[in-house]
Amino acid sequence: MSKKVRYTLEYPVRCSPAILYEFLSTSTGLQEWFADKVEDKDGRFSFAWNGSTEEAEVVESEENKSIRFHWLSSPKDEYFEFSIDKSEVTNQTILVINDFADKKEIKDQSQLWETQVKDLFHRLGN
Fold this sequence. Notes:
Elements: E1 5-13, H1 17-25, H2 27-33, E2 37-41, E3 44-49, E4 52-62, E5 66-71, E6 80-86, E7 93-101, H3 106-124
Antiparallel strand pairs: 1-7, 2-3, 3-4, 4-5, 5-6, 6-7
Helix pairs in contact: 1-2
């Protein structure tokens, strides 16, 4: 099995970091755009898509800044993370996504994120 590599995606967002963080860190917010159904119990999230369920735990979070999830079925050093940054030039809010994939799957995974983020932007009114 090949080792997955980390890749980063960045999206400018027209909303406050506090509102964006709600969509990235709560089961209600994540269910709006990320998965069909999301449940959260004590920092452990259950994500459901088309009848299949994946579980992840929050391993790190800083309010209105970032949240890192670890899929329970993945190696310990792999995660997916949402960070909220500010452009020093434009003062615009930037959503930064860090994830892991096999090198040959990065393009497909990036397209999947693109679709998910479009749903998020729709919910945010972007």
